[in-house]
Amino acid sequence: MPTRQTLTALRRAIALAAVLFLAAAVPAKAELHLDISKGTVEPLPIAVTQFYGEPVGQQIANVVEADLERSGLFRPLDHRAFIQTPDQLANGLPRYGDWKVINAQALVSGTAAVQPDGRLKVEFRLFDVLAQQQLTGLAYFTQPDGWRRIAHIIADAIYKRVTGEDGYFDTRIVYIAESGPATTRQKRLAIMDQDGENNLYLTDGRVLVLTPRFSPTAQEITYLSYFNNKPRVYIFNVDTGRQEVLGDFPGMTFAPRFSPDGNKVIMSLAQNGNTDIYLLDLRTRRQTRLTDNPAIDTAPSFSPDGSKITFESDRGGSQQIYTMNADGTNVQRITFGAGKYGTPVWSPRGDLIAFTRINGGRFSIGVIRPDGSGERELSTGYLVEGPTWAPNGRVLMYFKEKPVGEGGRQRQVRLYSIDLTGRNERQMLTPTDASDPAWSPLIP
Amino acid sequence: MRMKYLSLCAALALVAACSSTPEKKVDVAAASTATTTPTAPVQKPTGPVPGSKEDFVVNVGDRVFFGYDKFDLTPEATATLDKQAAWLKKYGSVTITVEGHADERGTREYNLALGERRANAVKNYLTALGVDLARVQVISYGKERPAVLGSNEAAWAQNRRGVTVIN
């Protein structure tokens, strides 16, 4: 059994000591707050100043600023308009008038200093300019190469303080990096930070790999590999690079996802033209069949409390989305719109299921409540597929493929993210074409 | 596109069949015996070796096509598979892998399952005609290995296929 206790490569460099200092005093009357549960949000004007001290302070501030900007909820202000300098902020209180005059509503300042033991100490403070008070302030210690992660953690802290919800910046994306002509496409397992940095290829492209998903600790990835021309579900340990086939099944296994407790993997087995859903217990290696129907039953996804499973099936004549209890009982169809529905993914908040819809030659990404009500379309295109949720359930990522080149004979495939509101669609920067994204939980 | 492919196959089969007329009615596999046919000067003097992968692809036809989101065999498909079964019985030591493929107009995992259905439809037909089950493996590639690039029905129709590959 792979142990879940070992340190991941992600965590290795970082010994976190977060200290809340100068906690916000008495909440002021008009405290800064963005309600992101509403439809339209005017981005909050925010001044993110260079972190004073080490040169890396500038890079930390840049990463914090980019995270906040990409969320669509913040509008970072031009540094050239700043009046008060980083060293003045480091050595005194904000001159709120200097920030109010450039229309900043929030202000971020910070310091970065190397400690005698070689570690980097990073502090930040978030101020409410109009209420003239500090909202939060934290200090972190890290090995010097952990600065980028600290920046994401700071961005998460700011996001949480302002919106009241957990952030999603200290996360990673596992995906399939694509290259070469479509008829002989090379596909590699790849992993990167949520902002596209630290891109790393985990497989070399000699073997076709598809549909990766993170474990709840982000330490393991389950995926489909065509190793030895036998498509089977594998598990990949991010620490050790070890790959291991999962289960002993008599046919193709595919569409794997972890259970919320990380102890099980749910997947499909295709055998003699019939595809059903199976559960594999990673500790006992016991296999349990959950569906028994001549239709295609695949793309399973657990509800966050582990009590329910959503999946797709063509048992009603066409591909549609269903829910059932985790033991396979109480099957309910939840999609009834025109066209086909597939790839259901339960939100980490439990309130919605994201899906891919194919209707009239168009593909779209949408969300629906688990009871089948409230269906909404978020993005559409020639081929849009495979939504995955940010851990706070407010942002989705998916891939968009479109014909390019002469006669539309080649393909461009890229990752995109979008707000649950359907706004702020952003292309992810990846070194190559990319598909099948899966968002990690917040890194423990 | 699909018609072009089929007519190309037909032309090749015709050449092979013509050149083998002096032989007895052994379907189309004897192309290599016709080394000096004067009426076909563009032909290489040697054709595929009987019983070879090339022989199978050129003289029998290695693939069948399916409708959108379908896995039932069309009359054209069963005609091809009849020839495949005859060839496989003639060359009894050959083993095959049937690949099931889908077009790009479905989701990835559904298409993997659909490709598996198609590969099994081919396998079941061949084994029903007497091809030993032990000689037939199946694999689904879903939409991962299109035969033809394109964003139109003509291309998609050629990608919804079952391909019998000689191991």
Automatic annotation (TrEMBL), chain A:
Q: Could you tell me what this protein is called?
A: Tol-Pal system protein TolB
Keywords for this entry?
A: Cell cycle, Cell division, Periplasm, Signal
* Family, similarity comment: Belongs to the TolB family.
* TolB N-terminal domain boundaries: 33-135
What is its biological role? Answer: Part of the Tol-Pal system, which plays a role in outer membrane invagination during cell division and is important for maintaining outer membrane integrity.
Keyword check for Cell cycle: yes
Keyword Signal in the entry? The reply is yes
In which broad location class does this protein mainly occur, judging by the first location in its UniProt entry?
periplasm
Q: Cellular location of this protein?
A: Periplasm
Q: Name one GO cellular component term.
A: periplasmic space
UniProtKB/TrEMBL annotation, chain B:
GO biological process entries: cell division
Alphabetized, the UniProt keywords read:
Cell cycle, Cell division, Cell outer membrane, Lipoprotein, Membrane, Palmitate, Signal
Q: How does it sit in the membrane?
A: Lipid-anchor
Q: Which residues form the signal peptide?
A: 1-25
PROSITE patterns of this UniProt entry? OMPA_1 (PS01068), OMPA_2 (PS51123), PROKAR_LIPOPROTEIN (PS51257)
Where does the source fall among the domains of life? Bacteria
Entry-linked Gene3D superfamilies = OmpA-like domain
- Where is this chain's protein located in or outside the cell? Cell outer membrane
Q: Which GO terms describe its cellular component?
A: cell outer membrane
Domain (OmpA-like) ranges: 53-167
User: How would you summarize the oligomeric state and partners of this protein?
Assistant: The Tol-Pal system is composed of five core proteins: the inner membrane proteins TolA, TolQ and TolR, the periplasmic protein TolB and the outer membrane protein Pal. They form a network linking the inner and outer membranes and the peptidoglycan layer.
Q: What is the annotated role of this protein in its UniProt record?
A: Part of the Tol-Pal system, which plays a role in outer membrane invagination during cell division and is important for maintaining outer membrane integrity.
The family annotation for this protein states: Belongs to the Pal lipoprotein family.
What is the name of this protein?
Peptidoglycan-associated lipoprotein
Which species does this protein come from?
Nitrospirillum iridis
